[in-house]
């Protein structure tokens, strides 16, 4: 190929990439990023069958004040229809909603079980827990109906009598460690209660204790008295924690899949008389390879987000402005991919093809 043609191709490719870059880099503040992650997370969990028409919510520490507040999906929207207008800022110490996360909206309704999030954030540092999700997942609810709080029980020592406990049955649930998921019984925390909802600080504190000792590290999941990233809640659902929103979503989805696997494995065990081989100690992990799954799930919910933002643009226009008290250098705008970059791909392809002809 003549040098001039090669040079032309390189020039056109560079121009195409520059156009894509220019189109794909809008400015988002850290708080806007957190808001959009929560919106995406809620819709992904609905798409995956974790959150349907039942109540549930996911949160993340406020990037502008991670030690004192967090962002949570509130409002009255179902999980599949959460928008930026539904995201609230909540104080960790008293569970009070201070405002909407983005400045263009009024304060969303506070979830009744907001104490789940506040109590867990109070108990653990942000290096252990930076995101919390509670949903009434029907895949996990059956395992919450059995009291299996035996701290010495492990996957390798389980017998047929222990199959009502929820163990890590797949590689996707390696984050659980070798111990079964603890079960929080709200009637132990508050014997006189008439509701299974974690709707006050007493119940919230009792639930938070099930995740392990205060200030426990994620590195202690193999220990008898170590950290537990997933806690089942009697008659109510499950709460899962992680260090990022995508990680928490990944863990919830993988836990639901593992629950189905364990159910079928236990059915086979009742016929054969043997015990399923759950993940052993050496196969546990403290981090998850969630990025490929997250990107796939994002592509699955993109049509619904585009449709909703077109139908109700006023619910998606929040500008992420923060109050003077909370604004600092961490509130600077950052660059993130934008959907308009996809429209530039045909332009790039046409330019490259033209250069090759």
Structural description of this entry:
The protein has 357 residues and is α+β, with helices and mostly antiparallel strands. The chain folds into two domains: 29-111 and 290-334, no CATH class; 123-288, 3-Layer(aba) Sandwich (L-fuculose-1-phosphate Aldolase), CATH 3.40.225.10. 35% of the residues lie in helices and 11% in strands. The chain contains eight helices and ten strands. The chain has helices at 3-23, 30-47, 115-123, 186-189, 201-209, 245-272, 291-311, 341-356; strands at residues 27-28, 56-61, 69-73, 87-91, 97-100, 131-135, 183-184, 230-233, 237-242, 334-335. The strands form two sheets. The protein has an eight-stranded mixed β-sheet, sandwiched between helices. A two-stranded antiparallel ribbon has the order 1-10. α1 (3-23) runs antiparallel to α8 (341-356) and α2 (30-47) runs parallel beside α6 (245-272). It is globular, with a radius of gyration of 23 Å. It starts with a helix and ends with a helix. Residues 3-25 and 323-357 have low confidence and may be disordered.
CATH hierarchy, class of the largest domain: Alpha Beta
Q: Percentage of helical residues?
A: 25-40%
SS-based class: alpha+beta
**What's the order of the H and E elements?**
HEHEEEEHEEHHEEHHEH
Identify the CATH homologous superfamily of the largest domain. Answer: Class II aldolase/adducin N-terminal domain
Shape: globular
Main beta sheet strand tally, sense and closure? 8 strands, mixed
Integer tally of domains:
2
The Rg value, from CA coordinates, equals 23 Å
Total DSSP helices: 8
Remind me, CATH topology of the largest domain? L-fuculose-1-phosphate Aldolase
Mean pLDDT reading? 84
End-to-end gap: 12 Å
**CATH architecture classification of the largest domain:** 3-Layer(aba) Sandwich
């Amino acid at each position: 190929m003549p040098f001039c043609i090669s040079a032309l191709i390189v020039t056109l490719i560079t121009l195409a990439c520059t156009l894509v870059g220019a189109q794909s880099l809008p400015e988002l503040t850290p708080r806007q990023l957190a808001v959009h992650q929560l919106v995406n997370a809620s819709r992904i969990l609905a798409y995956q069958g974790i959150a349907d028409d039942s109540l549930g919510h996911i949160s993340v520490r406020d990037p502008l004040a991670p030690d004192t507040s967090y962002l949570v999906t509130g409002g009255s929207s179902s999980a599949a229809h959460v928008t930026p207008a539904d995201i609230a800022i909540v104080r960790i110490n008293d569970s009070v909603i201070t405002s909407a996360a983005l400045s263009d909206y009024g304060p969303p309704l506070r979830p009744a079980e907001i104490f789940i999030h506040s109590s867990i954030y109070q108990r653990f540092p942000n290096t252990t827990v930076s995101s919390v999700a509670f949903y009434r997942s029907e895949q996990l609810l059956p395992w919450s109906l059995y009291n299996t709080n035996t701290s010495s029980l492990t996957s390798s020592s389980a017998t047929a009598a222990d199959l009502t406990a929820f163990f890590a049955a797949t590689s996707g649930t390696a984050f659980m460690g070798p111990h079964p998921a603890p079960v929080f019984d709200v009637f132990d925390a508050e014997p006189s209660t008439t509701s299974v909802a974690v709707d006050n600080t007493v119940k919230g504190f009792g639930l938070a204790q099930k995740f392990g000792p205060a200030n426990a590290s994620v590195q202690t999941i193999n220990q008898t008295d170590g950290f537990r990233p997933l806690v089942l809640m009697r008659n109510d659902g499950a709460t899962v924690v992680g260090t990022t929103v995508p990680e928490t979503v990944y863990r919830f989805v993988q836990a639901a899949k593992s629950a189905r696997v364990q159910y079928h494995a236990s059915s086979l065990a009742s016929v054969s008389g043997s015990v399923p081989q759950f993940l052993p100690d050496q196969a546990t992990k403290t981090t998850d390879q969630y990025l490929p799954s997250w990107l796939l799930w994002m592509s699955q919910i993109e049509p619904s987000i585009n449709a909703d933002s077109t139908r109700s643009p006023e619910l998606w226009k929040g500008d992420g402005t923060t109050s003077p008290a909370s604004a600092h250098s961490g509130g600077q705008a950052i660059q993130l991919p934008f959907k308009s970059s996809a429209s530039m791909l045909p332009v790039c392809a046409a330019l490259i093809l033209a250069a090759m002809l």
